Amino acid sequence: MDEKLENHIEQYGFPIVPDEKSGALQWIDMRELRVKFIISVEKIKPFFEGLKEGKLLATKCKKCGRLFFPPQKDCPSCRTDEMDWVELSKEGQLETLTVLFVRPPSFANYDPYTVAIAKLDDGPRITAWLKGDPTKARPGMKVRVEVSKRKEGYYMYELVPVE
């Protein structure tokens, strides 16, 4: 621990330091945070089976017709579990993007990457990594969804600009 932080802990009783620009106090966490989790996907298993086949699947409420991507097992509006599986169009328009240079530890093995949001032609918005040069990507440009394998060996979808 550096001397400056030790002085602040002694002064405030906590690991807080003033922000250099605003002077507002901010907490400096001194512990490494590692999170591992397990989430049941049994009720949305068709989504993963579809990815293996190169399909992009969503759920649609049988009562109100709302479309959900990523898929949900229940409709929060109708409070029903009566859902249909529908295949989504893989075409859409790019809405926004950002390049991540400072990556979380779980993606530290990746070069800087681009995360984008696109609106698919059949309605839902999708957040995914954007393939290709982000300096050539512009909001409004056409993109398509491709299913590919990540470095870790599992399937995932990404957005690819359409030339």
Q: What can you tell me about this protein's structure?
A:
It is built from 2 helices and 10 strands; from the N terminus they run αββαββββββββ. The protein has about 160 residues and is mainly beta. It has 2 domains: about 35-90, no CATH class; about 90-163, OB fold (Dihydrolipoamide Acetyltransferase, E2P) (Beta Barrel), CATH 2.40.50. The strands form 3 sheets. It has a 5-stranded mixed barrel. A 3-stranded antiparallel β-sheet has the order 4-3-5. Strands 1-2 form a two-stranded antiparallel ribbon. β3 (about 55-60) and β4 form a beta hairpin. The longest helix is centred in the first third of the chain and has 10 residues, at about 5-10. The protein is extended and about 60 Å long. The mean pLDDT is about 90. This is Putative nucleic-acid-binding protein containing a Zn-ribbon.
Low-confidence stretches: none
Give the termini separation.
Answer: 52 Å
Mean pLDDT: 91
Which structural class best describes the helix and strand composition?
A: mainly beta
CATH T-level topology of the largest domain: OB fold (Dihydrolipoamide Acetyltransferase, E2P)
Determine and state the CATH class of the largest domain: Mainly Beta
Into which percent range does the helicity of residues fall?
Answer: 10-25%
Structural Rg = 21 Å
| Proportion of residues in β-strands | 25-35%
What is the count of DSSP helices, taking H or I runs of 4+ residues? 2
The domain count comes to 2
Task: Choose one word for the global shape.
Answer: extended
Based on the coordinates given, report the CATH architecture of the largest domain: Beta Barrel
In N-to-C order, the SSE pattern is: HEEHEEEEEEEE
Main sheet characteristics: 5 strands, mixed, barrel
InterPro entries: ChsH2_C, ChsH2_Znr, NA-bd_OB-fold, Thioester_dehydratase-like
Domain ChsH2 C-terminal OB-fold: 85-146
Domain ChsH2 rubredoxin-like zinc ribbon: 48-84
Pfam families: OB_ChsH2_C, zf-ChsH2
